[in-house]
Each structure stands twice: as C-alpha cells, then as structure tokens.
Amino acid sequence: ILCLVSVAAALDFKYHHAKELEQYLKGVHAAYPSLTHLHSIGRSVEGRDLWVLVLGRFPTHHKIGIPEFKYVANMHGDETVGREILLHLIDFLVTSYGRDPVITRLLNNTRIHIMPTMNPDGFEATKVPDCYYTRGRYNRNGEDLNRNFPDAFENNSASIQPETRAVMDWIKNETFVLSANLHGGALVASYTFDNGNPVTGSLKGYSRSPDDDVFIHLAKTYSSNHASMYKGTGCDNRKTFPEGITNGYSWYQLEGGMQDYNYVWGQCFEITLELSCCKYPPADQLEQFWRDNKVALIEYIKQVHLGVKGQVTDKNGNPIPNAIVEAKGRPHVCPYRTNEQGEYFLLLLPGTYVINATVPGFKSMLKTVEISDNTGNFSALKQDFSFPEVSDQIRSRAASCPKTPLYQELARASAAVKPTVHILVLMTVMLVIFK
What we know:
The protein has 12 helices and 15 strands. The protein is an alpha/beta fold. The protein folds into 2 domains: 18-305, 3-Layer(aba) Sandwich (Aminopeptidase), CATH 3.40.630; 308-396, Carboxypeptidase-like, regulatory domain (Immunoglobulin-like). The strands form 3 sheets. Strands 1-2-4-3-5-8-6-7 form an 8-stranded mixed β-sheet, with helices on both faces. Helix 7 links the parallel strand 6 (186-191) and strand 7 (245-247). The longest helix is centred in the C-terminal third of the chain and has 17 residues, at 286-302. It starts with a helix and ends with a helix.
C-alpha cells in the first residue's frame, strides 16, 4: 500500500509522455480505488488510449442529483500546459480528500471527469517544443480537432476523427453539466458562441447564446481566480481582453469548435481556457503555471452547482426521460431534455425564473423558482415535476433535434413556445375537421 501511495504521490513538474501519463493515472487509481475510476473512452488514430480519470464519492456511475463535470486538455497536441496541470489537479484532489473540508464536500457532491490529453498523437509528434506553432497541433491525420465537430451554424464538411467521435460519444453517454477545454497560446477565458450569424449578433461582432449571462459569469469566475488572467493583458501587448474574458466570435470566428458542440448538442456549458502565451513552455515553468491556475480550477468546478436541478416523474413516481425542461425566455435549438433517470440540470444565475417542463403530448407544467447562489453549499436548488396524467406505460420520445441545427431557427423556436390566438383557432378548426 505504501508503494502504491508513493507512486501516486511521485508527480514532479515535468512533461509526461504517453507511457508515463498512463502509469501515473493507473497508480492514482490503484492508490485511491474507492475515490477514482479510470477508463479509456476510445483510441487515437495511432491507437493510443484516450484516458479519463473520474473522481468522486461514486466514481463508477452517475448518481441522481450529483452533477457531472469535465476538464479536457491537450486537444491541440502542442498546447501542453493544460495536460500537466490537470495531472497536478488530480494529485491535489485525491490527497486533499478527507483532509480539506472544501475538497471533501466538492468530491462528495460532484462527479469530476478529467481527460489530460485528447490528442496524444499530436503531443508525441511535437519533437521540438515551440512557443508558437508546430505540426503537433493536429492529430495523426493532420486534422485540427477543434474544427472537427458538427457546427451549429454551418454544414461542417470535416471528416469526423476517432478522437472527436470518442468525445462525442462520451458527451452523449454522460449527463455533463459544465466543462472547460484547456488550450495555450493566449491568456483568456473564451465562451460560446465561436461561430454565429445575424440572429446571434454576428453583424455586431458578438455571437450571443441564450445563456450569455451565465457564460460571462463562468468565464469571469475562472479569470478572476487566476493569478493574472483577470488583468486582461494580451500576449502581444496589443490585443487586450477586458477582465480576462472574451466572446469566442468576438475574438475570431471558428467553425466546428468543441465548446459550441457541448452547449448545443450536449446540454453542457463549456468554456475554452487559454492558459499560456507560450504553447509549449519549458518544463521549469510548469510549477508556476500550476500555482497560477490552482484556485481557478477549483472555483470553476464549484459552478456546476449553479441554478436548478430536479426530476420529472409520472403519477407512479417513475422517471420520465426526454421530457423538455427549460427556463422561459431561454430556448435552445436542441431542447434541453431529461436523462434516463428523468433528471435535468439548468445553470442559471441567482434570480427569479419560470421553469417550463413539457412531456410531449401533454400540457406543460410551469413553476416559478427563486434561485440563490448555492455553489458554496455544493447543491443547486431542487425543483421536481410530477405529471399525474402520465403513466409508466407512456414513454416520452426524444424531442426532435436536427443534426445541423442552424441558429436562424432560434427566433422561430422561441416564438413557437408561446401559443397565439391564431394557433389556438387553427388547432380548434383541425380538431373539428378530424372529428
């Protein structure tokens, strides 16, 4: 046992290549088997495992009421700081559990997924570290993984890569609520949308999502807890980011990005964290990068407990999957739906909201909620919905979500949830005709 603990604790500040990274993760899991779960979500083009270490009181499976969080790093293989600080985050979490009351409560009430590298082939291909650009940015097939996801605004013709497909399946199979994607080459927290059109404000140079206020809060949470990101100084001393944050589209337009995919298709709020001006800095700087980011990494995870959560059940108390649950005034092109346990999670800032739960084919249920900042209590506000007219024999079908939802549909979608007199009259006429 002492040997296992020694292996898990022996994490120094250097770059860990594929075998070393795998050995470290396996050592942590062996030393903390009840607190961690190690698995591969797929393989890279060259056959390297895409390792994910899950941490929490119930690491092997989802538990009702406990939100899922993830960190992903190194999707550009030559952007390396995130890869290493996530290893040190793992070390900090497992060694603090049971000793630090905040970390203990965090892990007891959150299931945290950490993927140190999404592009192991690109990292191994970067033979000569460089502050700016190397071919290691891309995967083995020469594809930029952060341009490889389906896009919410354009028909992305890129061939989906094995690493991208693995992450897409991972998102589909978990109930992720909050996420961050760690990059390098700048010092800023960037938030969705990365792409856009006139409906989202692109003509004004800003692509606004229905949850723009939440995204701004999330980006500021990270930047304000970082040692220097909040200052907003650009790496070239010309481009500045007020308060250390930026709307992705305002910075530069990006098609096929991972953070937009998470938000649209995964019901998961993700931001992109640029953590170093130098993409692949010398190893002797890694300890300082860890110190600069340590508090921000923890404070950001806590934000998974913002807003409201609950279950949608039928008259017998059975969960209803695929029920639509959204806050009024915040429609999503892909409606946010309950999981197999009938659960929903909505990230919302403190305030008063009307939550609309809909089981297709039945009357919607509205509930007004007062949301406080419960991140310090590690639990969002709980608000359940019970549909007495729905029995367990009736299973809700998934709400339609096009594979390429174009956000010009948003205006029509938001109007569609507000029945008008004309619609009611039309429905009445149709009923008479059918009768």
